[in-house]
Every structure is written in structure tokens, then in C-alpha cells.
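no rush on this but wanted to send it before i forget. theres a chain ive been looking at and ive put its sequence and its fold in C-alpha cell form underneath. please have a look and point out which stretches look like helix strand or loop to you. thanks a lot i owe you, the record is right below:
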Amino acid sequence: MAARDRRRLLRALLLLAILAVAGMIFLFSAQSGAKSKETSDRVTDAALSIVVRGYKRMTESQRLPYRKSAGLIIRKAAHFSEFALLSALLALYIDTSPRRRGLRLSLPLSWLLATLYACTDEIHQQYVSGRGPALLDVGIDSLGAVCGALIALALLAWARRRKRA
């Protein structure tokens, strides 16, 4: 397969991955407040059962303090992570364009696009039962976006330097 064909295939796969992550974010945001809490509690319980000895044997009232404190951290980490992934994919997609623009454009553009999507995500939640927009979430999403793009582009630069050596 020619280099140009490989690049086109890579860009098509990256675009599909970007759309899948954006769709996943949209679907999570479309959950009602009650459904979102239920999902968060399940993830939190799974994490706590690994970290806290005897968590599975505790009563619901014994689990509650753990779930409250860990749940907030896990929910915010999820925001950070999903937008880090989205921005990393966007950075790679932009960087692999036929007119490679490099870090100067890939980093700010991927961060901007992911942050704009975070804003639309919060607007979307305004229309979902039991949910509402949160400026803090946009900030966390934006921070995740810049970190994701930085990591992806640093790994890409490292791989390119290694390939040349």
C-alpha cells in the first residue's frame, strides 16, 4: 500500500474514532439526571470495590460516604478523560492532513474544537431532564482537551524522531 493510501486510511479511521467519541459524549449527556447518577454510581461502586477492603460486604448506608467522595472525583475524571481522548484524536487528524501544519496548528485547533464541543455539550444538558449546564465541567473538559492533544502530539513527535534515527 502506498504511503498516500495509508495516510488516507489513517485519516478515515481517525475521523470515525472522532465521531464515535463525540457520539459517546452526546449519548452520556442525553441521559436523564437519574440515569446519569445510576451510571456514575455503578462505575464508582466498581472502583471502590477494588480500592476499599470489604466494600462489597458493606451496607448501603456504610457505602454512601465512600460513594459521595469518590463519585465526584470519578465523574470529573470521566469529563477530563473523554475530552482528552477527543482532543488527542483531533490533534492526530489535523497533524496527518495532506498539508501538514505541525504542532503550531494541531495543538491549538484540536484544543479549540474539543472545548467548543464541551460548550455545546453543556448547552445540550440544559434540555435534558434533571441535568443542567456547569461552567466547571467546561473547564475540566478544556483542561482534558489540552492535555490529550499535548500527549498525542508529544508521542507523535517522539515516534517521528525515532523513525528518523
